[in-house]
Amino acid sequence: CEKDLAAAIPLVEQAEKALDVLDKKDFQELKALAKPPGGVDLVCEAAMHLQAGYDENIELDKKGFVKDPTWKGAQKMMNNPEKFLQNLKGFKSYIDDGKVPQQNVEKARKIQTNMGDEFSKEGMSKKSSAAAGLCVWIINIIMYYDVVVQVEPKRNALREATDTLNAANTKLAEVKELVQTLETNLAALMKEFDKAMAEKSALMADAEKCQNKLNMAQRLVGALAANGVIWEQTVENAGQELVFIPGDTLVACSYASYVGVFTRQYREDTVDAFVQYLTKKGVPLGPKPDPLAVLATDAEMAAWAGQGLPSDRVSCENGAILCNSQRWSLIIDPQLQGIVWIKNRESDNGLQVTRMGHSKMLSTFEMSLDQGKPVLIENMGEGIDAVIMPVVSRNTIKRGNKRVVKLGDKEIVLNNSFKLFMQTKLSNPHYPPEIQAECTIINFTVTEDGLEDQLLFLVVKLERPDLAKKKSELIKQQNEFKVTLAHLEALLLEKLANAEGDILDDTELILSLEEAKKTSDEVKEKVVVAQETELKINETSEFYRPTGARGSLLFFQLMSLCNMHTFYKYSLDAYLMVVTRAVNSVTLRKPKEVKEEPKVDETTEAEGGEDEEGDEEDAEDEVAEEAAPEEEEEEEIIELTGKELKLRVDLLQNIITLFVWNYTRRGLLDSDKLTVVSMMCMNILVRAGKITAEEKETLIRCPPDPTPPVMPENARSWLSETQWAQLKTLENMEAFKKGGQLTQNIEQDSLGWKRWYSEEKAENADLPRSARDLNQFQRLFLLRVMRQDRIGAALSQFVIDNLGQDFVEQPPFDMEASLEESTAITPFFFVLFPGVDPTPTIEALGRKLGKTEANGQLLNISMGQGQEKIALNALNKMAKEGGWIMLQNIHLMQAWLKDLERALEVIEEFVHDDFRCFLTSEPPGAMQGKLWDLIPEPILQRCIKVADEAPSDLKSNLRRAYSKFSQENIDACLKPREFKATLFALCFFHSLISGRIKFGAQGWSKKYPFNDGDLTICGQVLRNYLNNAENLGTEVPWPDLRYIFGEIMYGGHITDPWDRRVNNTYLAVLVTPELLVGGSLAPGFKSPDATKLEYSHYVKYIEERFPPEVPQMFGLHPNAEIGFLTNQGISIFKTIAEITGGGGGGGSSDISASTPLITSYLSSLPTNLDMIDIRGRLKEEDYTPFIIVSLQEADRVNGLLDQIRSSLLELELGISGALNVTEKMEMLSADLQANKVNALWAEKAYPSLKALSAWFADFVLRHEQVVEWTAQLKLLKSIWISGLFNSMSFLTSNMQVAARSNSLPLDYMTNRCRFYNTRDLAEITGVPAQGVNVHGLFLEGAGWEDGKGEDEGYITESKMKDLHPSMPVCNIFAVHINEMDWNAMYHCPVFSTSLRGATFIFQANVRMDPDDNEYRWVLAGAAMLTQAD
Question: Which phi and psi angles does 375 have, rounded to 5°?
Fold first, then answer.
């Protein structure tokens, strides 16, 4: 026995020796490990099992096993390293006393066996010296324990033998017998005593147990008292709501599935409609079903807010839909608020960010699918690569107990933790049905209310940073409180639900509940305090809310401008910078004196901060906390109250409006500026309550009354039927009810109203007495209807009066000021216009700032084939070095622009502060349309847009044109006199054709890209020709010069033959020998004497002698300006109507509002012509060219009638619910309400610019003519040529009849016109002897003087404000081209509409005065129209 024990002693010594090399620092290091190396935790677990019941730091369960064998329990065991080491060294005595249970050793032995060779000093020493020593100790202690267990039976046997010997010795004496008797009696007494004492102890223990249970019960009740009331109410509510849960859940699920893509208003309307439907079907629903309440809790929404999601309702709805959707989410996120939230939310889960088409996209998906990491595809376009569609559509394949997904040619095991998010910056993307079906599309576009709150916070932050900081901290604190309370409540319920046995015996549970209640009470107290503080802050902040509301209103107007032009796209980040600059420009904060502070040692953070990330973050937080007070002390904050604060808020509203307008105006086309500022002004006034939304809508659309009274005869001479119907509409407005009915007043005081109507500036003239009480805004309604040519001037004054002069007067573009607004990551985007090149402006500023091509700091690349890689490399190089780069004509590189977009995003990570990027692009062409997506939306959003158009006035154009030349050009010519005179005329010609475009189709039928290059090349051609003439000794070749200028250089742009005629006529008038003798260039502007003037004198001549600009300088009548201004006025309201008329996402108007219009049009719609009956009445010989035309017209009328009738009936059925409402129906409804001809109707119809009501009345008249024509089946005495679908075919039939009658070839026939001196069809007695009679023609650009007697009338000067005088009845007859006499005739084109161009019908001969010159009418744009619009 002793020998065995002696053999075990070295084992103990070896264990103690292993411990001697360790000290408490080793165990401190071991304990500090957050995650120990593999195996170390098992070694510590073995130590825990051995010392279970010995070390008081080791908690045991009811069975005596270690309660927490994890690393956390091990750390607790080593809580006091020094004591832990002492316990290890003293463990031998614990074994010797037999106090170590066998189960402890077996638990430790099992770990040793499982770890194998790793459970050794050598296996552990590489991982932890403390673990290695502990390992040696455990091995030897287990061995020692085994020896002690084997020796213990022998020691027990020895003890028993000794006791037996002692007992035998005591029996030797007799006395011992007495002692034995006494001991026996004593034992009996002691037994009774022990029994009595045991009963007493049991009773006392029961009493103590009862008392403890009572105490625990009281503490449990106290811990649950507050929550008990809440839970009781919750249970009661849940019982009541149990009936509603299925219905409310159905609403919430439907909401999450279908409406995420729509705007807030459409979502609400959809929910209301669905709730009404379910209620009608008897589905039990709550009092007010709220999908958001079902889909998310307050705590979840608070957590989202902490992760960066805006806290407005729509954003919370978006978050709830994303979190509850089984389909992967695709978010529409132009303002990038959604993607920020997703990145913050999923950052701890290892979010992987990629892009569609990225080279590593597939490898990212493979890794994420396998490891269960979330993936975000950012900045998507409108398509998804086919290779990842199985992932997007969740198309998995079952392989055993796993699911795999095909990715290309691979099958990847799908981890259940995998998530996919997709994001697009496009504000209005169009995804195909398969993507919409497989994804949950969520519209994260910022809402007006949400943006208002954001801007309010921004303004308060700039004005009162102290309040903003407190508010920000409170919001963060409140969100944390909500999350904490929800967590504590969940924890309480979890502990109660998982409690086993008698809950009163679970002391740990009750203590946990008490701690949770204590924390909850503290949080609730803080919540109350925080709410009171927040209320005080909000009271002050709310004074600034009008500023946030104004900013939000303006931003959403900017967002709507993309419906006006594709270039008008803006980002929220850029807009916030504009608002910030605006507020800072009038800041009241005053900088305080900067006190010199001792410099902080910058190396402190670097030292020791690299090893542990947590320490580094703590250090950063401490630095931030220390810096915050210093930042606050930099500025003195001025607090305003009462009237001063109100004035301050008004100032902020105005300054933000001005800055936003200047930022917007810089990128607007000149033609759009008045439209945008007018829309801005009206929206501001509507929001301020100064005008109503209904008034604004009436002003914009002004639909004619469908049933107006008959127009009085005294108004017919100066008002149209449409204007009369619109005036009837105005009578519904309150402002026009005060002085009696408007139409009655006009009828009674026709002279007074006509006098006002005839005023040159009607907007400033006094109105008739009955309307003198109208204010400035209300006068706009009258101008809108009666004098649309004065709308532009009236709106300009309206804007000045309500917003200020700065909103109308535009300062010249300042490149230097714009550069100050820019940053290295905001490129400039210049819109290119004919005659405008931003390159010199940029180069001049670059020279001033040291950025030139010579020093390599300015690079100008003109984009074209092969320049793609060069441009990207140069962009990266300049971004790193801080240079400037110009990428010109990027519109030519459509496929490459996505690469440019990505490159601009990548350089943000390393860009130099001095870097600037300048992009240039032409706007979309006329064929493409203004809304064609020429440049990717993300590029446009990030850019500062500059649309610096060339001035449209003649003087500015002439000044700029002449500046393209110099004295050196004059000196280089051998005929300086001829060169100076002709060059000046050429510059004036360039100015005329550039400025003529503003007169619309009467000026040019198309917008031609005349540019400075045409002018300078023509100047070179002129010099070369003159030098050649001087060398050859010949005269100036005027015809050759005119041909080259008109047909080749400028004419190369012109595609319309009538426009080419105008161009050549200008040259025929200007480039003549008369230039050398002071010939007239324009009324009041002569060609100066070239022998006396040099270049500088010509410049001075332009500045001093140029007359005021009038249409006559272009050869046009003043009516052309009225027409131009009228079109401008019409265009302004038409554009505003298109912008505000709604679109996708539920913005369109209610289709049921068109029901009265449908009824009206259907009731007025004529019946179809019976073509079977008509053809049945014809014999074979009756099919003459004129009859065939009548049948063709009848077929076209019937086709249009069918289209109108079927579409109206379909819409009627759609409104009633009999048919599903389609997009075509919605478009038709919108068109009906907007008084606009539907596109499908227009396809079947004829060219027309009329509004719907006038167009429909016109169509009814066309139908009547065809009915009369087909009823007679012979040529009418006069054909209303305006009422024909195809007027050209009718005129061709006229030539066919003449050719057949006279046996002449049709190819050599032409139509000749002769105008009667009557417009009254009653005076036409019958069909003419030759040709056909037509009526319904109008003259534009000229007037008509009727002849006397049998003499034919002739073209003459227009009468003021008579834009389209009607022509007399015209006899058109066909003659052989050789018989056509053009003497004293004007070659007059005839068009269907005032748009001219493609609506050309034929060329008419119009008689002129014998002394007249045809050039006059060519330059006047004189033409005949079949419709006066």
Answer: -125, 135
